[in-house]
Design a protein that fits this description.
The structure holds 2 protein chains of 2 kinds.
Chain A (H helix, E strand, L loop, with lengths): L1 H20 L4 H10 L3 H12 L4 H12 L2 H11 L6 H8 L2 H9 L5 H28 L5 H4 L4 H11 L4 H22 L4 H18 L1
Chain B lengths: L1 H22 L6 H8 L1 H10 L9 H18 L2 H20 L1
The chains are: A mainly alpha, B mainly alpha.
Chain lengths: 210, 98
């Protein structure tokens, strides 16, 4: 879990910086992390707010981006028993990361999911708050320059602050998740293992082709 | 208005999450059980793929992602895969931009 928490901090902070830059208040920036709690959708929302998109566009885009959670829910419900009441909490904590690590964990229990989900929720909101506050302290210019970091780190921080590198950071988290899942399938000796690796290889090839 | 939009965004995010969990109570035929086993691999691959191509640094990203995947495959330690991937990514980037 630790690498996922650490990976989330720059991503959450970068979301907050871009949301603040898009004109959202500190409260609105934080509110989105609390009630929407979906990194990809929040990032795109920050971009759409900056472009003065209509509320309809924002809501429809969010819906399309997050429709995949339907599959996570069905899949998760098959892995573990979730009572009628518990699912209201489970639903709010359901993210790519929480689903991924639970699917990849040996136990695949509700306890594991709730631990993973709530800790990710906490880190996500904390890093949002830090990013939102930091963006106020750094009105213009690069974040890295302001903090007197070495040139390389400074560029990295700038890129992160602009949210350019962060989708990649997250993509990498997912790469890692997918390959560990593929490995897990293989260890279990299921026929699915070969196909998981094939799917994993297929996306790499696809990335190379483009 | 912004706050209303945010709450509507929350609603359209929460409902699919809840609907999936509610559907899970059904007993599914074997075909769908097998189908669901591929959800993680399919969705995660779809999430990763768009992050790999970029205007100016596609090779760097591919090398970093491939290294991370290789480390993960051999070592099976999440933190090490992330660390190696990020070090390779930032290292190549620093070399490239110098």
């Amino acid at each position: 879990m630790l690498p996922l928490w650490l990976g989330m901090v720059p991503f959450g902070a970068a979301y907050a910086v871009s949301a603040r830059a898009a004109g959202l208040s500190l409260f609105e920036t934080q509110l989105m992390s609390l009630v929407v709690f979906s990194g990809g959708a929040q990032f795109s929302a920050a971009g759409l707010f900056a472009a003065n998109a209509s509320p309809f566009t924002l809501v429809a885009t969010t819906f399309l981006i997050n429709a995949r959670h339907l599959l996570y829910g069905v899949s998760l419900g098959q892995l573990m028993p979730v009572t009628w009441r518990q699912r209201f909490l489970v639903a709010h904590l359901l993210t790519d990361e929480a689903y991924g690590v639970t699917f990849g964990s040996p136990a695949r229990s509700l306890g594991f999911f709730l631990g993973a989900g709530s800790s990710l929720f906490f880190i996500w909101n904390l890093s949002t708050l830090v990013g939102a506050l930091l963006s106020r302290l750094v009105p213009t210019g690069g974040l890295g320059h302001r903090l007197h970091l070495p040139a390389g780190v400074s560029r990295a921080a700038d890129a992160a602050a602009e949210g350019l590198a962060c989708p990649y950071c997250r993509g990498l988290c997912w790469t890692v998740g997918a390959s560990s899942l593929a490995g897990r399938e293989r260890r279990a000796g299921r026929p699915a293992g070969g196909r998981s690796r094939a799917a994993f290889g297929a996306y790499l090839t696809r990335g190379r082709a483009e | 208005m912004t706050i209303v939009t945010i709450f509507l965004m929350a609603l359209v995010t929460y409902l699919p999450r809840l609907a999936g969990l509610s559907l899970a109570r059904l007993t599914l035929p074997p075909f769908w059980t097998r189908f669901l086993r591929f959800v993680p691999v399919a969705v995660f691959a779809a999430l990763i793929a768009p992050a790999l191509p970029s205007a100016d640094e596609t090779p760097i990203r591919l090398v970093a992602a491939a290294t991370a995947a290789l480390v993960l495959w051999r070592v099976r330690a999440l933190w090490l895969g992330l660390l190696v991937g990020m070090v390779v990514f930032w290292g190549l980037r620093a070399l490239y931009n110098r």
